Amino acid sequence: MKQKKFMKKKKIKIKYIAKSEGHSDLEAKILKGKIVEARVDVRKGARLIEGIVLGRKIEEIPEIVARICGICPIAHNLASIKALENALDIKVPKVVEDLRKIMQYGQIIQSHMLHIFITISDYFGLEDSLEIKKLFPLHFKRIFEIREFGNEVVETIGGRAIHPVASIVGGFSVSPSKKRLREILKEADDILEKAIFLSSLFKKIKFPEFRRETEYISLSKKNSYPFYEGNIVSNKGLFLLAKDFKKELKEFQRPKEVVNLAKHKGSSYLLGALARIINSGKYLSPPAKEVLENLKIDFSSFNSFHILPAQMIEIVESIYQIKKMLPSVLKEKFDSLYVSFKPKKGKGVGVIEAPRGLLFHFYATSSDGKIEKADIITPTAQFLFNLEKDIEALSEFFPKNAKKKEKIQLLKMLVRVYDLCIACAVK
Amino acid sequence: MRKKIKIAILSLTSCAGCQVEVLNLGEKIGKIGELFQIVNFPLIEDRRDYPKYDVLFIEGSPAKKEEIKKLKKLRKKTKILVALGACACIGGIPEMKNYKNRYEIMRKVYKRPEGIDNIEIKPLKEIVKVDFEIPGCPPRKEEILRFLIDTFFSKKFKIPQFPVCFECQIRQYECLLQKGKVCLGPIILGGCEAICLKNKIPCHGCRGFLKEPFLKNYLEVLKKYGIEEKEFWLALEKFGLKDEAKKIYEKEKNKD
Fold this sequence. Notes:
Chain A is of the alpha+beta class. Chain A has helices spanning 49-52, 61-66, 73-87, 94-119, 132-135, 137-158, 178-199, 245-248, 273-280, 286-295, 307-331, 379-394, 404-417, 422-426; strands spanning 10-14, 24-31, 34-42, 167-168, 171-172, 215-220, 231-234, 239-240, 249-252, 261-264, 269-270, 346-354, 357-365, 371-377. Chain A has 14 helices and 14 strands.
């Protein structure tokens, strides 16, 4: 037993990982030059969102849960709406679903663009994302134009860019302006071109060497690249109806930690853009496929740093889908975008692809229209465990003779590329 | 040339939406980075922290004891502290837990609630001195920009004292109070262009109360439209205004 003393582990700690949403620290131990026991220590407090909605009225839920996250409020808004509409047996017309899908594409563009903006500076050796402006002024401009386009789409349909107002259980409280949607459609071609131009920036990047095999889980739907609906699948053969989410994907909590993590069959898994490309990449639209091919990145090489270019491809996909869907949506009448409903006792699940991956909402309602139970499982909470496993594996890929500073930087880059949303993870 | 004003944008427990709204200023953020010296904005940069701030924006509210400590420390190194958004100004959505048994709901969220901080949520001004407030959930980028411009020209930032109701009426949106719904428009600080009413959703007060909201009069109005008083108190929980409303209401009653 005394021998253990000689095996004393060294520790590393990175306080406050910047260029990442929320406050998290990284702690790990080093044993024989390898990282072991990596922990992402989340430092935000618990808002207990699943607790505060109890007893509130059904119609209040989408606006309250949207506030889980200011980066992906649409995902929470829509997942809760889907869950509640399932619980109450509400069937909304196709045009409502289509408008929701378009709004969600807007959200994907906005969220991914924000993440690319705040992390791409790492790959050019810059500390401050605003410095991208000096190095690539035109790309910098494009980043904000594309992001603004995403916001515009969300605002036009949901009533506001952050925390939608009009998107409610049963449909929309007011109809979006067709005039503005037509303007968006007009703009879409130009934005698509700009996004394709922006993707060329990724050719200048050499992504760090890394490989750790893991399970990639996402929604899947026949012949489509799914964000809004589908079954749950993985590269390892998982097939699951969305409503059976909790049968396979299991939450667990370590002592004193504010995030309920998740695993599948005892192992970590990854969600989000990279998982979606792996599982549904063949269904990408022609322009997104072209970008994918031009980037010459082997997405099947289990390199988590590829999350970043995968998001760029999804931005192109989303712009294209908006452009494709709008003409037929604009032909529809917008005079009945709301289905009224009566409260009843029920249970419902809503699963959606948030920008960061699978998002699960569950509610039980009472006959007088109140929430009796709520359960929300966010993507960051699910893949945080996978990040920890990746951090441990990264030490095997540190360049030879790398200095400590360089290693720390690589670790930070890995954490950042995961696009953590601590606000979502804690709730 | 005069020295650039050093600004920081930091976050306590929150949804990050206020910081996202800052970035929704779009390309202008580049210009702001030139006119001011952004010394700490960890969402977008990874420099070392700066010892003193001229202007510090704080989004969110403390939800852990260590965040209260952090807030007090930050106050000491800051000339002008700006509460950004509903959580910082009035408690916001997280304050809803104050109005429930917060230990009971904690047990529903966590299998192992032991050791997790579960403090009462308070707006910043109840913990430290706050110099300015930019209200709203989310705050509006136009007001954030106006604050920055005012600060650049050493002008005092002010939000005019008129209710959401006024903004709603001049835009001729449908009155939801008249339809029997609790809309807080008459007692809440305007400046949001009545965006919820534009979307036919009642105001639930994310921008906080007017200086003198006259709650007694408002409750009379509710009665007139046949709205139960308990609905009013329930609506006030949403953005954390219920405790403040109780105090104001008591004061108004004592005045009579």
